Amino acid sequence: MSTRILAIDPGSRITGFGVIDVDDRSKIKYVTSGCIRLPDEALSIRLKNIYLNVQTLFAEYQPNEFAIEEVFLAKNANSALKLGQARGAAIVAAALNELFVYEYSAKRIKQSVVGNGAAEKRQVQQMVQLLLSLDSPPQVDAADALAIALCHAHTRTAAGLEYGVGKRAARSSGKRWTESDVRKMK
User: Is the pLDDT of residue 166 over 90?
Assistant: First the structure.
């Protein structure tokens, strides 16, 4: 049995998405990726477009798991707020589809895919291309979304989550999450 992961790289102008399948032997298969290009209109219209497009992705690809990048601290507070709102629109779509939301920091995603938490976007593109055996590197936002999906795939195991999610997973306590820990969070 395979698990389908939908990952979103949120943005208020361009939102990347990536879909991969992971089988019970942890073999990863590319399904699709792309970008939701948002109109140059009011933020409320762009957020609506994110929500509707992510809902369409749920309907078309029927993922079992959903992963998204955590909000990072930006130099511009207004940009950080818009990013948080874009994340919220995608998260609502996941919640309405009854999926738990797995969140990963940008540093952790890059560490998982490239091996360097400070990797450049071009390095992420190249590693995503290599890991998924793609003919060419995906567009930057789509590559970021696929990197999120790969990070989630690398984090989980067939028996449940190996290292957990979000901030708790970044702790150096060495505690592993168990499947029952994840069930308690749902």
Answer: no
| pLDDT for residue 143 is more than 90 | yes
Residue 184 has pLDDT above 60, yes or no: no
Please compute Rg for the chain using Cα positions. 16
**Residue 10: helix, strand or coil by DSSP?**
coil
Dump pLDDT digits (tens) for 111-130: 999 988 889 999 999 999 99
The Cα–Cα gap between 111 and 154 comes to 11
**What does the alpha-carbon distance between residue 49 and residue 14 come to, in Å, rounded to a whole number?**
11
Q: Would you name the residues annotated as active-site residues?
A: 9, 69, 141
| Dmax (CA) of the chain | 46
Beta strands in 79-141 (DSSP E): 101-104
Extract long-range pairs of 121-128: CB within 8 Å, 24+ residues apart.
Answer: none
Give the Cα separation of 55 and 43 in Å (integer): 18
> What's the pLDDT score for residue 179?
44
Q: Which residues have CB under 8 Å from 112's CB, separation 6+?
A: 104, 147, 150, 151, 154, 155
Q: β-pairing, 65-69 with 101-104?
A: parallel
The reported pTM is 0.83
